[in-house]
Amino acid sequence: MAFEDDLRAFALGAMERLSVPGASIGITTPDNRTIMPLGITALDTQFAVRPDTIFQVGSISKPFTATLVMALVDAGKLDLDATVVSYLPEFRLGSKKAAQQITLRHLLTHQAGFWGDWFDDFGLADDATERFCAEYWRLPQLFEPGEMWAYNNCGYILAGHIAAKAAGTTFEAAIEQYILDPLEMDHTFLSAADAIAYPIAVGHTNNAETGAAEIARQFRRPRVKNPSGGILTSVVDLLAFAELNLGRRSCVLSSDSVQRMQDPTVSTYEIDTAWSPGFRILHADGTDIVGHLGGSYGYSARLELIPTIGLGIAVMTNSSSGHQLGSELVDWIIKQIAGISLPAPVQVVLPDQDKARLEGTYCQPDSRVEIGALDAGLGGRFIAGDPSGQSATQHSGPSFSMRYLGEQRFMIADGSMKGLQMKFWTHPDGTVRFLQSGGELFVLEGLEYGEGATAT
To answer: If we measure between CA atoms, which residue out of 240, 253, 231, 288 comes closest to residue 64?
Structure first.
């Protein structure tokens, strides 16, 4: 009980400091389960979070999609190294060459190379995702398939569409048939209309000036986003999914497929980090920590596994600032249970000549990052909306400073995005090719954003 008491005290203190209204913490080990609901589901109702309270978990949906794909691989219906066009002969991209080369493995490991943050709403009909994927000719190609790693939501939407085709049903029905039903996850959904009849947490954002929590009055998400970010679940159900990936539940995947989902496949720009088909792999203190973060409007979540000791940790919050809470809780739990301390990257001095070389505005089709010189290095801010700056709907985030980690890597040192790593990729002549942040690629303002048609 001392561990649980200490965890509760630590979590409640962090929740108050970070203005997180509610959280649900779950821990599973080979011998025990700990479920700890904390706080409230919404500021206006003040209802308490319960073990069965449902949260949006954003991109933690991606390991579900990868699990569905691997279940279909086990069934002989899919092959990770088969090309997308072998399943969807009509598939098109901005780059015709890349469209012929991309494999299912590229999609699951974020190596497809096309722009992956296009989210137009195609409605709620069963053919929404099929119609969405038919528009991928809009997406510019940033690098050759397999050349590097860049986080790709559209890649997972495409993988989910292929899996649904192979299963002979909709993506939602396939997830239910292959994962939710066998694991008895009866508080997990892919539709707000289904989830609303159960205890559910309301999302919250933070006031830009005061930092105080405010209710986020938006809940519905486009159906096309379900394979990349549509899961709504409880901490009890999420632990069941964790136990599947820890090898303690054999009703969904073969042991070989469980292992393949945890094998590092491609290194990323972040220090000591790789990616497998479905998960991020962080190598720390001689141990691989397998996990995924998730965030949607007003929610943040985190799932972490240490397979070597059978440890699984789930943290779900109804706050946009909950990612910092999740980070602090996971670090604390791993240290207490596994004795592993996650190392902080070491800051080094940024050469003065690099300040001017790296300064500038870096753009995607729908957002940009402004990077400028500070006395101690570089700083910046994110701006969502029209990269030209002309749209009235653009939203500017708070300014931040950056710590230099060497090899053109940086870490945001303050604010709501503290800890986020960034890297400048350069050409042989030293000019900047990409700024990579949050896994996504930005190009210097005025340069063409990849090959093919520009996403609008």
So the answer is: 231
> What are the structural domains, with CATH classification, of the chain?
1-343 (3.40.710.10), 352-444 (2.40.128.50)
Find all residues with CB under 8 Å of 72, minimum gap 6, and list them: 78, 163, 166, 167, 178
CB 450 within 8 A of CB 140: yes
pLDDT in tens, 352-366: 888 889 999 999 988
Hey, how many other C-beta atoms are within 10 angstroms of the C-beta on 310? 16
Which residue has better confidence, 419 or 326?
326
Task: Quick: pLDDT tens for 145-164.
Answer: 999 999 999 999 999 999 99
Instruction: Count CB neighbours of 343 within 10 A.
Output: 10
Q: Which ranges of 302-389 does DSSP label H, i.e. alpha helix?
A: 322-338, 352-358
What is residue 301's three-state secondary structure? strand
Identify each DSSP E strand in 40-193 by its residue range: 55-56
Tokens of 88: 């969807």
In angstroms, the CA 306 to CA 313 distance is 9
Tokens of 250: 């054999």
The residue-averaged pLDDT of 221-238 equals: 96
